[in-house]
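Data deposition worksheet. Section B asks for the primary sequence of the deposited chain exactly as it was used as input, without tags or linkers unless they were present during the calculation. Section C holds the resulting structure in token form. Section D is free text for depositor observations; keep each observation to a single sentence. Incomplete worksheets are returned to the depositor.
Section A, Depositor: J.P.
Section B:
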Amino acid sequence: MMHGPFTRRLVAPATLGAAATAAVLTLAACSPSPPHPARTHGAAAAAAPRATTAGAPSPGGKAPAAGSSHGQLGSTLAVSDSSGTQLDVTLTKVIDPAGGANPYSKPASGKHFVGVKLHVQNKAASTYQNNANNETTIILSDGKTLHANYNPIAGCGNFDNGQVKLKSSAASTGCVTFQVPKGQKVIQVSYGNTVFPGVTAEWRIP
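Section C:
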């Protein structure tokens, strides 16, 4: 058997495979692990704020309170609304039946005039201006609500054709007219802003 100057060493395939696997494992062990997201536990987690829109106040602040103030004929009741109105309103008299102020002021067939006499005082620092014919309603014994009629009645003017304009602390008295079917009785009178939400005065009529 002849021997050359070089000697070849053969490595078995299995040995190569084991060496490659060891190298991969070594590299994996040296590689940095990926960062984990931060977690908050306990009290810190409970204190974290949560975004919500439920119940959030409007940019203008609190909504104005709405409701009604109640009393009997002759009572002075508070009236207010979101436009800044602050009034003391007194229902001084219900004229039932009321006569027309002139021969041309007549109720429709089967109806009669009723006059609601109101004393309105401005309690706000700003001027109050509105139409009492729009702000005043009545409820009848059959449960129906009536709005004002514009016929003038005798002995009690309709403010300034319904218009009420009052500087701070000023007051005015006038009547609002209604046409009521015969046989019906007024059981409630209301005064309040019909446009802006607020507190409406309601008087029960005995």
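Section D:
The mean pLDDT is 78.
Residues 71-204 form a domain with the Immunoglobulin-like fold (CATH 2.60.40.1240).
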